[in-house]
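Ticket #4471: structure export looks truncated?
Reporter: QA, pipeline team
Priority: medium

Steps to reproduce: submit the single chain below to the structure queue and open the exported record.
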Amino acid sequence: MRSIVISALFETLPTFGIACLRFNFRGVEESEGTYAEGRDEPLDVVAALDAAMSAASDADIVGPLALIGWSFGADMALATDDGRITGWLGIAPPLRFRPPSAYAAIGADARPKFLVLAAHDEFRPPEEIATETRGWRATRIEVVAGASHFFVGRTDRVVTLASDFVLSLTGG
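Actual output as written to the record:
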């Protein structure tokens, strides 16, 4: 929740009029529960969606719902099939925390998906992710030059790509 990537998004996206909710997965910091190696964490994503939708209705916020995650969070986002989601943005998803079948529903879904990959990712090269997702529908991939998995010095590019993606979901 406090990684450099998520912090940059959480700080900047609201300046574009994009409401954000960030959370820790079970067992992280003060969160209840125990880490389940990716098996149960998609339930945390759904709980966050429930909280976001409740907050949005309380504040009369309307618009598309983009599910954005980085690294492990990207894997959990890309494994969460929920009808409320307008599109998915996976930032440096290793696609290793769930079995390949867990990503099949999202890959086959016609809603937009955008994968932002690091050119020098230490955990999984962008070429492998591109190969693994080749058959996914409505999926765009962008590789950020000079970036490592943590996007140090390149978070500005990630924020620009993320805001452009979310704004494209609104049609503006």
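Status: closed, not a bug. The export was complete when the record was re-opened. Leaving a note from the reviewer for reference: The longest helix spans residues 41-58.
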